[in-house]
Design brief:
The protein is built from 12 helices and 8 strands. The chain is of the alpha/beta class and 342 residues long. It starts with a helix and ends with a strand.
């Protein structure tokens, strides 16, 4: 039988050891947070839709609304726009990619029996040919239903300033969208950002002959049957990045690791997936819309359930528009290698 005095000594010793352990863990955590307040960055991966242009332009609503519904009626034999809307929205809520949504919908018997086999590239070309890309320059305005020439010019100037700043960043820049590649290319060309994602587009490169080859632009058709936020989609991108690095005999590092990458996104699903892989994250929230615009449904997100949550633990930095990145994170632009200092 253990005496009372012995039991007291055991209890005291155990409590002391536990306290010391907690103190050591706390100190280690505090040290980690202090040391890890800045991070060297090798790669910045940008989502495209509602990220490199603002959600308030209404371009995403245009693409994911009347245009895709009409495509489904004209080419996939849906009886009417409402039937098309219902099927697309049902699956888009699950997969967050129209291409994957329609692929799965057809495999589960949701298409008319006379519909041809859905082809991502065919839909992509339809978007290239039928979308109104001038909408990318719209700016939210409660006082007017049209966008003035001055406003469009201001938007284009802001995008050029962003382009020039990113061109001076020595990190590898990557575009990765759940939209199909040909469509993504048209968006980037319209925004004047396409040449940022070529094989020689880094500021450290002395030869810019291949700035426009689009080597580091990835659409959903590059990762199907997967798409964001699936882990396999991200892994495929890293695999391609590292193979490209190896083929170019780049010996500066062994491999590109998620921990030295930033994911710039507007989707919480994708932000959380990127953080789970170890990436740094920047959440693009979009400009605040007016009550009038909210009532009209203009400038709102297609998936309210995936709306930005700025205080989510997976979010390192949040900002309304991508143009803020130059002032919010200057270490990405004035240091080499770039440094992420949230």
């Amino acid at each position: 039988m253990v005496s009372a005095s012995t039991l007291a000594r055991i209890t005291t010793a155990t409590a002391t050891a536990a306290a010391n352990g907690v103190l050591r863990r706390t100190a280690a955590t505090q040290t980690t947070k202090t040391v890890a307040s800045s991070y060297k960055i090798s790669t910045i991966i940008f989502d495209v839709d509602d990220c490199l242009y603002d959600v308030s332009t209404g371009f995403t609503e245009h693409r994911n609304g009347e245009i895709i519904w009409k495509y489904m009626v004209d080419h996939l034999h849906f009886a009417n726009m409402e039937d098309a809307r219902r099927v697309r929205e049902k699956y888009f809520k699950i997969y967050h990619s129209t291409a994957k949504a329609l692929t799965i919908a057809q495999s589960e018997g949701e298409f008319p029996i006379t519909a041809p086999k859905f082809d991502t590239k065919h839909m992509s070309q339809y978007w290239v040919d039928h979308l109104n890309y001038e909408k990318l320059w719209n700016r939210s305005s409660s006082s007017s239903s049209t966008t003035s020439t001055d406003t469009i010019n201001d938007a284009k100037q802001s995008k050029k300033e962003l382009h020039d700043a990113l061109k001076g960043c020595s990190a590898r820049l990557v575009a990765f969208s759940n939209g199909p590649r040909a469509y993504v290319q048209k968006v980037l060309l319209t925004l004047g950002l396409w040449d940022l994602f070529g094989s020689s587009s880094s500021s450290t490169s002395s030869n810019h002959d291949n700035d426009n080859d689009g080597t580091f632009v990835f659409g959903v058709d590059d990762v199907l049957p997967h798409c964001k936020p699936e882990k396999e989609a991200f892994e495929k991108i890293f695999d391609v990045l590292n193979k490209n690095k190896s083929s170019n005999n780049n010996d500066n590092d062994t491999i590109i690791r998620p921990e030295e990458c930033i994911m710039v996104e507007d989707s919480m699903k994708n932000i959380r997936a990127a953080k789970a892989l170890g990436m740094k994250t920047i959440l693009i929230t979009g400009k605040r819309i007016t009550i009038e615009e909210e009532e009209k449904g203009t400038g709102t997100r297609i998936l309210p359930c995936d709306s930005p949550v700025e205080d989510d633990p997976a979010v390192d930095v949040s900002m309304e528009t991508i143009e803020e990145i130059t002032t919010r994170l200057p270490g990405l632009f004035n240091q080499d290698p770039p440094v992420f200092e949230p």
